[in-house]
Every structure is written in C-alpha cells, then in structure tokens.
Amino acid sequence: MAQEFRSFIAKYPENPRVRDARKHLHEMGLDLADICFGLATPSEFRTEPLMGLGLRTRFLHDGRASTIEDAVRLHAGEATGSRDRFGSLSGEERRALLKFLASL
Questions:
Q1: Domain check: are 57 and 91 in the same one?
Q2: Structure confidence by residue, pLDDT tens digits, 59-81
Q3: pLDDT tens-digit map of 29-63
Q4: Are 18 and 42 in a shared domain?
C-alpha cells in the first residue's frame, strides 16, 4: 500500500490532496532524520499543534528533548532561522516566550 501511495504522489505531484498533505511537512535537518511515512522524507516531519504543549514532558518526534528550549535548539533545516532568532533573544525575552509556550 505504501508503495502504491508513493507511486501516486510521484505521478500526480500537483494533485490538490498531495499538495495539501505536503504543505504540513517541514524539513528539520539530518540530525533529526528518522523513519518516514506517507509523503515524508526521513528529515521531514508534520509539525504537531502547540495546544497542550505545556502538559508534555518530552518533545520532538522521538522524545529526545526534555524541555521546550531543548526542542527549539535541536531544530535545523527550514527552522534554522527561527532557531537562531530564538538563540539571539535576551534572557528575559527567551523566558517570556518559553512561559507563553508552556501556557498553551
């Protein structure tokens, strides 16, 4: 079934369903690469909704990050710019952002 799905994607990349499914995938860099399903390559992941983020105790697809801050710092690929901007925040700004994220 997975092979048939991949064949369909290769044959019809402009199909609205294929485009809609792919727009939720984000390239996260080789350090986070893992097994892939459906439309994803090994370094692509579907970003999870942030609702309930403050209730989680492990982060990223494999739980390797124990804090929200660790998860942000482990991002690469498309998220490199966001990760770097997070790293350039002042301590006060970073704490405020993390407090907000933990409140979701």
A1: yes
A2: 887 788 999 999 999 988 778 89
A3: 666 656 555 555 656 666 667 788 889 999 887 78
A4: yes
- Are the C-beta atoms of residues 77 and 29 closer than 8 Å to each other? yes
Q: Domain range holding 24?
A: 1-47
Query: 66 or 4, which is more confident?
Result: 66
Tokens of 35: 């097994």
Residues 39 and 89 in one domain: no
Which DSSP letter does residue 46 get? E
Residue 86 CB partners (closer than 8 Å, separation 6+): 72, 73, 94, 97
Whether residue 64 sits in one domain with residue 35: no
In the chain, how many domains are there?
A: 2
Other C-beta atoms lying within 10 Å of the C-beta of residue 87: 11
